[in-house]
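Deliverable D4.2, example record:
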Amino acid sequence: MKAKAFDIRTLDHVAIHVSELEKSAAWYQRVLGLERIQPTEWGPFPALMVAADGTGVALFPTHGDSPGRLPEGEVIRANHYAFRVDREDFESVKDHLKALDIKYDSQDHHFFHSIYIYDPDDHRVEITTQVRAFTEEKRARR
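Output generated by the structure prediction step:
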């Protein structure tokens, strides 16, 4: 078997289309505590980034003349994307969402516990924490 050429460490970012850049950026800042990143070096780039600790969400306008826009009538949707939090913070996430009056669903995935919410454009966002370690036996199961 060929050795891996490189190791993936973490999710860097996801890029999504949104109907209103400013509204979506504000939601990600308020609900998930992400920081808005828009360096002047990017120039008049039509998208913007919100991020935390090296993982971000690139927000692209759905319509207009931007290079990232969707062609008219085309719909592309990801199932969801996930942010990981420490176990100690998981209950705080629930409290925060309740305080913001944001409805969420919880799921126990045995190794992970997850909360699912929706952003203003109905993108499904998962906030997850690992509660049990994967053993080599469990990782290898196919």
